[in-house]
Write a structure and sequence with these properties.
Layout lengths: L2 H27 L3 H28 L6 H33 L16
Helix pairs in contact: 1-2, 2-3
Length: about 120
C-alpha cells in the first residue's frame, strides 16, 4: 500500500466534501434561480468530481485485487460528470430564460435582444 497516494486521495475527498458544503450553503443563501443554479453546478462538479478522483487515487495506491478497475471507473465517471454538469446547467438556465419561468430584471439582456 502506498501511503502517499492514500493520503493524497483522502485529502482530495475531504476538499470535495468542503465544496459540497459550500454549494449547499449557496443553495440556501443565494437570492435567485440563476445564482442558485451556479452553486448547484459548483457542487456537482467539484463536490462529485474531486471525491471520485480521490477514491481513484486511494484505489491506485492500495494492494487490493481490482484496484485498477475501481480507479478507472472512478476516473471515467469523473470525466463524464466534468463534461456533462456544465452543459446541463447551461441548458437549464437557457430554458428558464426563454420560457420566462423566472422573474428577473437585468440591466442588459443579450438573450432577450435576439427575440
Amino acid at each position: 500500500m502506498n501511503p502517499v497516494l492514500f493520503w493524497a486521495g483522502a485529502t482530495v475527498v475531504f476538499v470535495g466534501g468542503v465544496f459540497d458544503l459550500i454549494a449547499g450553503l449557496g443553495m440556501v443563501r443565494f437570492p435567485n434561480f440563476y445564482v442558485r443554479l451556479h452553486a448547484a453546478t459548483i457542487g456537482a462538479i467539484y463536490g462529485a468530481v474531486l471525491p471520485l478522483i480521490g477514491v481513484a487515487l486511494m484505489a491506485f495506491g492500495s494492494d487490493i485485487q481490482g484496484n485498477t478497475l475501481v480507479g478507472g471507473g472512478c476516473l471515467a465517471t469523473a470525466l463524464i460528470l466534468f463534461l456533462v454538469a456544465p452543459v446541463g446547467s447551461h441548458l437549464l438556465a437557457y430554458a428558464a430564460h426563454k420560457s420566462r419561468a423566472v422573474e428577473w430584471s437585468p440591466v442588459v439582456d443579450q438573450l432577450g435582444e435576439e427575440e
